[in-house]
């Protein structure tokens, strides 16, 4: 039962863009985790650049740097 919680800077994404992104992420999960659409959930949250450090980097990324599968190429 994979769940993806995607946080990103605001973009002009239409509902169709978001749906296409969710489908692409789901496709990768199905391919690599041998799972089904019914088992996948995906959340998408826009986070302003000014809030990134406080809302994402400090509470989520920084404490988990040693276990991240893909580490960011930046530090805050």
Question: How do the strands and helices of this protein lay out in sequence?
Answer:
Elements: E1 3-8, H1 15-33, E2 41-46, H2 52-61
Parallel strand pairs: 1-2
Walk me through this protein's architecture.
This protein is an alpha+beta fold and 76 residues long. It has one domain (3-67): 2-Layer Sandwich (Macrophage Migration Inhibitory Factor), CATH 3.30.429. The protein has 2 helices and 2 strands. It has a two-stranded parallel ribbon with strand order 1-2. α1 links the parallel β1 (3-8) and β2 (41-46). It is globular, with a radius of gyration of 14 Å. It starts with a strand and ends in a 15-residue tail after the last helix.
Fold-level CATH name: Macrophage Migration Inhibitory Factor
Mean pLDDT: 97
Q: What strand line-up does the widest sheet have?
A: 1-2
Please identify, by name, the CATH architecture: 2-Layer Sandwich
What low-confidence regions span 5 or more consecutive residues with pLDDT below 50?
A: none
Q: What series of H and E elements makes up the topology?
A: EHEH
- The CATH class: Alpha Beta
Keywords:
76 residues; alpha+beta; Macrophage Migration Inhibitory Factor; two-stranded parallel ribbon; 2 helices; 2 strands; 16% strand
The gist of it:
This protein has helices at residues 15-33, 52-61; strands at 3-8, 41-46. By secondary structure, it is an alpha+beta fold.
């Amino acid at each position: 039962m994979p769940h993806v919680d995607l946080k990103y800077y605001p973009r002009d994404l239409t509902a169709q863009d978001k749906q296409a992104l969710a489908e692409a992420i789901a496709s990768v999960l199905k391919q690599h985790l041998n799972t089904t659409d019914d088992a996948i959930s995906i959340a998408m949250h826009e986070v302003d650049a000014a809030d990134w450090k406080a809302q994402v980097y400090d509470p989520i990324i920084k404490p988990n740097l040693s276990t991240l599968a893909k580490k960011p190429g930046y530090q805050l």
